[in-house]
Amino acid sequence: MSQDLQELEPQTFVETALELGGKSREESRRTGTLDRADDQVEALFAPRYQTSKSPVHRAVWEHDFPLDLFMPQDPQDESKWERAMESSLSVVRHHKRASTLIDGHGKVTNPLLNDLAGAGYWGMLVDPGFGGQGMPFSVFARFLTRMATIDPTVAGLASVHGCIGAVDPLRTFGSAEQKSRHLPKLARGERLSGFALTEPCAGSDLTALRTTARLEGDEYVVNGEKLFITNAVPGRTIGLVCLIEGKPAVLIADLPEREDEHFQIVPYGLHALKHSYNNGLKFQDFRVPKENLLEPTRGDGLTIAYHGLNLGRVALCSVAAGTMRTMLANMLPWAHFRRTYGAAIDTRELVKRRIGRLAALIVGADALVDWCAGLLDQGYRGEMECIIAKIFGSEAQKEAAVELFMKTHGGRAFLHGHLFGDNVHEYLAPCIYEGEGEMLGMAFFKSLIKDHGKHYFEPIGLALHAAGIRQPNPLNPAHAWALRSALVPYAGWWFREHMPFGSSIPTVDATGPLADHARFAMKALQRSRFEVDGVMRKHQLRLADRQCRMAELSQRIQDMVVILATSCWGTRQSSPVVQAAADILCQDLRRKLSGKRPTDAYLRAVTKLGETVANGGFQAIAGIEPEAILMPYQNDPAA
User: Fold this and answer.
1) DSSP letter for each residue of 468-481
2) What is the H or E stretch that residue 301 is in?
3) In which band, very low, low, confident or very high, does the pLDDT at 22 lie, cut at 50, 70 and 90?
4) What is d(CA 262, CA 350) in angstroms, rounded to the nearest whole number?
5) Is the distance from CB of 384 to CB of 51 less than 8 angstroms?
6) How do residues 297-310 score in pLDDT, each as one tens digit?
7) What integer is the mean pLDDT of 257-286?
8) Measuring CA to CA, how many Å separate 582 from each of 415, 480, 566, 588, 613?
9) What is the residue extent of each domain of the chain?
10) What percent of the chain has pLDDT over 70?
């Protein structure tokens, strides 16, 4: 490599480091492209709100623990938006009762979408100046949970439209002219939107884009194909990611009202998202006005694509919180009805444990949604925090569906018409939406180590490259001499961290088990910096290949954060049942981290919680209408 590493632009260090670690030039180039896109998104935020100043990053790396950043914000007064929210909820309830929610093709009906437009549903996140509600994201996120208890698909469509569709790119990156031209139609629901990023060869590898757009006069001519695009039907508006002169860009494209030789729908069978339109899109000399190109002040199309993902990740957790409420509300009547050996199964310890565990998962999702949405409203990028919410929400919903809901319903779970049997793919698919969980876990880990690596490991890498050393050996005098200056900053950090005065853990303004869980999590997060640093030191440039180690350590740190966020949120709740559910979740996660077995005290606590929930003590599911019990055995004397 002829160019000296010290002369490279800072954003290309990742590429060079990967090449030194044995990666191909092509893989290093693509990884560097994503790293630059991430840097460009960071630059959109004020320094105090960037990842290195985020709650999780500071919790791991700083001595003064930022407990205040983990405490939930006081809930906003929602009365300003209550009319639009209640109108939207009423519309969906009406169509559900009238059996007009889903059409003969199994898709949400146009009358439903139009009635929601009249209620202001599609403009919740659009500024009032463009005809929307101007709702803070924290209010919107809690509203999605309410909507999901009635119909998760309708809730998901609001997230697609407002968070990852065309609304957020226009709000964030659009010019004044572009906003005034597009946002009013999107707010009124005249044009529902989606975001066309994924391609047959570009899923998690966003550098493999092939769709192109070339400028001809006053129009861009688009050629290419997109895959797995929600809201992809004629007459919708999409944010279309394509390559313009070899660089990623985003065009706001109004799809025509019908297919033609330039635009075709690519249908396929998809088990998940079955009630919404999810299709491929094929473009052949498809024309988009050149004034529809979004031109961010920093970055490119990948910057735009990355920006809305955090909103979508929190929204996914919001919908999971509502979906799990529906599962619980439908478990209880069945558990009370189903009898074995002369007694209802809701009196059995195992079933009570399942009910208690499901309440705990719901409370954890609620806590993460309130915490992350509040951070986004404050101006934080929230990359690491929103990844945690997405992973927890999707994995909690999966566990709730399979381990708790399905197993409690037994064979009836597989009947046509049963919530589980009819929606199992909907329950599992969020593990893939907005990024597959383990892949996101590694992205979380990369965000966690990036600043530490830049300050302490990058100088060492530069020195190794300059000396032509690929396998450093500290016992080799020549190697030690070559690294003498580069090691000074890292040595200073290491000795400071191992001084006996240690870290500062603040006092939690609460008592009881939740306060104890918070203290445990804070100490664990502070200690984790040594393990993270040790992994970086051990694997060095080969760390990118240690995916299993990164994913495992990432998940443990995520669990610590969930404990802290849930315990802090729980201390602010007035309901003893909610606090008990938060305690159960924190106990479960602490056992997972320690490898200890459940104690008898824990088993008594979780079954007591389940019994309280079964007896109507969990207000989080109040008002949810359960489905009818399928094939009731009315003539069974035991019933």
Assistant:
1) T-SS--TTSHHHHH
2) helix 301-307
3) low
4) 58
5) yes
6) 777 888 888 888 89
7) 94
8) 33, 51, 6, 10, 14
9) 193-294
10) 92
Amino acid at 343: A
- pTM greater than 0.90 (yes/no): yes
Residue 610 has pLDDT above 80, yes or no: yes
Q: How many alpha carbons lie under 13 Å from residue 384 in its C-beta half-sphere?
A: 26
DSSP state of 202: B
Res 13: pLDDT = 44
Helix or strand run (H / E) with residue 263: strand 263-266
Helix (H) / strand (E) element for 238: namely strand 237-244
What is the structure's pLDDT at 10? 42
Q: Vertex 78, ends 75 and 84: CA angle to 5°?
A: 150
Write down the pLDDT at residue 32.
Answer: 53
Confidence band for 119, pLDDT divided at 50, 70 and 90:
very high
Looking at residue 80, its amino acid is K
**Which of 45, 159, 72 minimizes the C-alpha distance to 375?**
72
Q: What is the pLDDT of residue 41?
A: 82
DSSP string, 504-547: BPPPPS--SHHHHHHHHHHHHHHHHHHHHHHHHHHHGGGGGG-H
Q: How far apart are CA 588 and CA 45, in angstroms?
A: 36
CA distance 96 to 77: 29
Give the pLDDT score at 277. 92
| Domain 193-294 coded CATH 2.40.110.10 | yes
Nearest to 564 by CA among 75, 70, 56, 63: 70
With 0-12 / 13-18 / 19 or more C-beta atoms within 10 angstroms meaning exposed / middle / buried, residue 617 is middle
By the 8 A CB rule, do 587 and 602 touch? yes
Residue in 347, 318, 325, 333 with CA at minimum distance from that of residue 155: 318
Q: Which residue type, as a one-letter code, is found at position 240? A: L
List the Cα angle 493/499/500 in 5-degree steps.
160
Is pLDDT at 23 greater than 70 in this prediction? no
Q: Helices then strands (H, E): number in the chain?
A: 23, 10
Q: Do the beta carbons of residue 476 and residue 486 sit within 8 Å?
A: no
Pairing relationship of beta strands 263-266 and 247-254 according to DSSP bridges: unpaired
Q: Greater confidence, 306 or 587?
A: 587
End-to-end Cα, the chain, rounded Å: 78
How does the average pLDDT of the chain come out, rounded? 91
Dig out the tokens for 131 from the structure: 């005809």
Residue 138, CA atoms < 13 Å, CB-side half-sphere: 20
Contacts with 242 (C-beta within 8 Å, 6 or more apart), sequence order: 209, 211, 212, 213, 220, 222, 224, 248, 249, 250, 251, 301
Give dist(CA 521, CA 527) in Å, integer. 10
> CA–CA separation, 183 vs 168, rounded Å?
10
Q: Which residues pair with 287 in a beta bridge?
A: 221
The two structure tokens encoding residue 60? 């791991």
Residue with more model confidence, 98 or 302: 98
Query: Residues with Cβ < 8 Å from 75, sequence gap 6 or more?
Result: 138, 370
Q: Which residues pair with 195 in a beta bridge?
A: 239
Q: CA–CA separation, 541 vs 537, rounded Å?
A: 9
Average confidence (pLDDT) over 11-21: 48
Task: Specify whether the CB–CB gap between 205 and 162 falls below 8 A.
Answer: no
Task: Read off the tokens for 537.
Answer: 């030191």
pLDDT, one tens digit per residue, over 460-505 is 888 887 888 877 777 888 888 888 888 899 999 999 888 877 667 8
DSSP 220-236: EEEEEEEEEEET-STT-
Q: Rounded to an integer, what distance in angstroms lies between the CA atom of residue 124 and that of residue 525?
A: 36
